[in-house]
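Budget justification aside, the reviewers requested a transparent look at the raw inputs and outputs of the sequence design task funded under Objective 1. We therefore reproduce one unedited record. The lines immediately below are the structure tokens for a 262-residue chain.
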């Protein structure tokens, strides 16, 4: 039997493949908007407005902005409730952020689907030079992986990639009971702010290097990197460590010392 959510006489069949869980607590939506630092003259982009729980709060700070909604019925609902907004009916992962940020950089907000959280994060990371900040609600477990510290079990590719290019903060936890339908996990709100002193000359190369360094977590950096890089200029002490032991600054230094094998 399909789950159906009704709001203002509009019924929506919940689409599991879109990861739809609708936030119902207005105190939380207010906290998200306040924490985002939204201003009334900013270029705001909301990902997946759903029934507009977060949209309603953003409108009070900034009357005109852009939302991206993949569900046709929900896009229609937002158009009818907030006719002044620009509604992009489509997949955020296919949205042209460069075009949206042409006049002003974007401030991004959203309660993002659990199923595509990582692709959304990496898309935002790719376009970080066009973003002021991103304040996002996601699965609590993923949020903990993003803000994880070196030497912990949660510290991995996601933490290093995001912390290398952004200042990331976990703002607060959100219990599962404030959603319809209720998910099986808790959520959390994080804020990502791209670093202004981002001087890495080869970010794509760095991202590949981090993936290789964590390829097999239980192996040392030597064993993970030796097939892809010349390690002659790297201290042997460092190579005996596992990737999870390195700070972001140490990852930067190691990447600088490495030379890819031809």
């Amino acid at each position: 039997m399909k789950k159906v959510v009704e709001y203002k006489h509009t019924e929506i069949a919940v689409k599991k493949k879109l990861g739809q869980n609708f936030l119902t607590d207005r105190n939380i939506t207010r906290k998200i908007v306040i924490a985002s630092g939204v201003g009334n003259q900013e270029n705001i982009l909301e990902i997946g407005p759903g029934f507009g729980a977060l949209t309603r709060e953003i409108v009070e700070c900034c009357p005109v902005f852009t939302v991206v909604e993949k569900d046709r019925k929900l896009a229609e609902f937002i158009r009818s409730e907030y006719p002044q907004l620009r509604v992009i009916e489509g997949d955020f992962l296919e949205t042209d952020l460069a075009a949206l940020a042409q006049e002003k950089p974007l401030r991004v907000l959203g309660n993002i689907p659990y199923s595509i959280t990582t692709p959304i994060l990496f898309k935002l990371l790719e376009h970080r030079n066009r973003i002021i900040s991103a304040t996002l609600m996601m699965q609590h477990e993923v949020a903990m992986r993003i803000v994880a510290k070196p030497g912990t079990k949660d510290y991995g590719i996601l933490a290093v990639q995001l912390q290398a290019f952004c200042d990331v903060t976990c703002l607060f936890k959100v219990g599962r009971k404030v959603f319809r339908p209720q998910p099986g996990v808790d959520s959390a709100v994080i804020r990502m702010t791209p670093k202004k002193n981002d001087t890495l000359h080869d970010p794509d190369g760095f991202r590949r290097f981090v993936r290789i360094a964590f390829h097999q977590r239980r192996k040392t950096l030597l064993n993970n990197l030796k097939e892809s890089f010349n390690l002659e200029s790297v201290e042997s002490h460092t190579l005996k460590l596992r990737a999870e032991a390195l700070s972001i600054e140490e990852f930067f230094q190691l990447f600088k010392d490495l030379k890819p094998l031809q």
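The first strand starts at residue 4 and ends at 7. The chain has two domains: 4-194, 203-260. Computational costs for records of this kind are itemized in the attached budget.
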